[in-house]
Amino acid sequence: MSHRGPKPPPGFSYLQPTLTALSNELRTMVNRSHEGLRKSESNWPIIQITNQRSRYVYDMYYLHKKIDRKTYDYCIRQKIADAALIAKWKKGGYEMLCSNYVITPSNYKFGGVSICRVPKSERREKGEIQDPNTGCTGCASGDVVNGNIFGNKYGQRLAGIQIAREERRKKKELEDAKNAAANPEPEDKPVVNEGDSETDDSDSDSDDDFGPARPAPAEAWGDNEENEQGLKLTSQAEEGEEEEEEEGPSKKKQRN
């Protein structure tokens, strides 16, 4: 993922794999066939991926505190994250807002808001709903199921998923280290044939011949287990934010 303008701060590299995956997904959705879709429906993935990208940056900074202010500000200036939408997320009642479009009265005949902003308890129709412009299934505070306002992978909290993967990887590395210490390999090494050469041409894909293998491209979205683990971490981080707010605004000032 490349951006014109100033060089990104060092902390941006932590976000880059997921942002690149989102950028590639957005490009795919823009170029896909829209045959059989309503005009507004064809825009759903674009709106939803844009929301998810902003949520990812927001969660990494405000909830999980994995990036610094310079990295966050860079994402805002480069329009990677939507500053106007994030500003709404900071206000009570708008924490899960899908888009500023759905709360703009001029977009609706009677100067109201979208059905996705109406709490379930106040809706005349009690069944499932979906905003025709964003595909949101409901973003009123307290109504969001499993933190997913779109009911698909674009509603996943990617920051939580990424951190859950990191914790799982660290745990596995510790287990592997313990197993290696408990069961050391024999010191005797196999004898290398004198005819072998370090520069011998062969079909081998070993690291010795071609250098360290590059990591596979990141899959930003998680399976059911990863999504559940990510949601758990996100919920814990949100509870931590609420505790800071109860203690007073002094701690929040440093981050806002």
UniProtKB/TrEMBL annotation:
Start-end of Acidic residues biased regions: 195-210, 238-247
GO CC field: spliceosomal complex
Region (Disordered) residue spans: 170-256
Annotated signal sequence range: none
Key words of the record: Nucleus
Subcellular location: Nucleus
Superkingdom classification of source: Eukaryota
GO biological process: mRNA splicing, via spliceosome
PANTHER family named among the record's database cross-references: PROTEIN BUD31 HOMOLOG, PROTEIN BUD31-RELATED
Record family assignment: Belongs to the BUD31 (G10) family.
Protein's recorded name: G10 protein
Organism, as annotated: Triparma strigata
